[in-house]
Design goal:
Layout: H1 23-30, E1 49-50, E2 56-60, H2 65-70, H3 77-89, E3 96-100, E4 107-108, E5 117-118, H4 123-140, E6 144-148, H5 150-157, H6 163-166, E7 171-175, E8 178-185, H7 188-193, H8 197-214
Parallel strand pairs: 2-3, 2-6, 6-8
Antiparallel strand pairs: 1-3, 4-5, 7-8
Helix pairs in contact: 3-8, 4-5
Length: 218
């Protein structure tokens, strides 16, 4: 089983993923995942949640500070913005399933009481966490996967993925042994960081409207 001294090439969550059971069993098992060192500094595992029969699954990068503290995905500022954009696009957030490519918060912190600074997960860390996402996809069986940002895209489609080249278009790929339809767009956190938030938000909204039309909701 992986440990803190395990080479990065050997990091994997696979030994922790149960072969049977639904999303609840998967979520309970993920709470004890030690598949890579990210579990150490993080407060807790942040697993996906939402409609188990969702037609659309949204995949982000990793939990943020608020998600790590609350143990739920997309509950911080970026999550609230995403919720608003989904509703405006004609997608009911209550009927979606939201998750992340990496289930633990990766951050840097110089002093215990200082703000925790987000750090992007490495490709090896994303690969280590991939068995959890693979099982989520297999259990939910969404009709469409919305990829939120470059990191999620690399986790699902490989290191050559560039969100700007394919955003707002539906692509078909075999993902973890399953044929999937995927629609890449930006991560909502990038909208919050943009110099022109209104334009960035409209871009995200336009992409989500494509998702809604793809599902027959627009």
């Amino acid at each position: 089983m992986p440990s803190a001294t395990t080479p990065e090439d050997a990091y994997t969550a696979a030994p922790f993923v149960p072969a049977r059971g639904g999303l609840d069993a998967l979520r309970r098992a993920a709470a004890d995942c030690r598949g890579c060192p990210l579990h150490g500094p993080a407060t807790q595992t942040v697993f996906g949640e939402g409609d188990a029969d969702a037609r659309v699954m949204l995949v982000g990068e990793q939990p943020g500070d608020q998600e790590d503290r609350q143990g739920r995905p997309f509950v911080g500022p970026a999550g609230r913005l995403l919720h608003r954009a989904l509703e405006e696009a004609g997608l009911d957030p209550a009927e979606a399933y939201v998750t992340n490519a990496v289930k633990h918060f990766k951050f840097a912190q110089t002093e215990p009481r200082k703000r925790r600074i987000h750090r992007a997960p490495t490709l090896r860390e994303m690969t280590a966490c991939a068995p959890w996402l693979a099982r989520e996809l297999a259990l939910v069986e969404p009709e469409l996967v919305v990829i939120l940002g470059a990191t999620a895209g690399k986790a699902l489609l490989g290191s050559s993925f560039r969100v700007g080249q394919v955003r707002g278009t539906v692509i078909e790929r075999d993902i973890h042994g399953r044929p999937e339809r995927l629609l890449p767009t930006v991560h909502p956190s990038s909208v919050l960081r943009a110099d022109d938030r209104d334009t960035a938000y409209r871009g995200l909204l336009d992409d989500l409207k494509v998702a809604a039309r793809t599902l027959g909701n627009g």
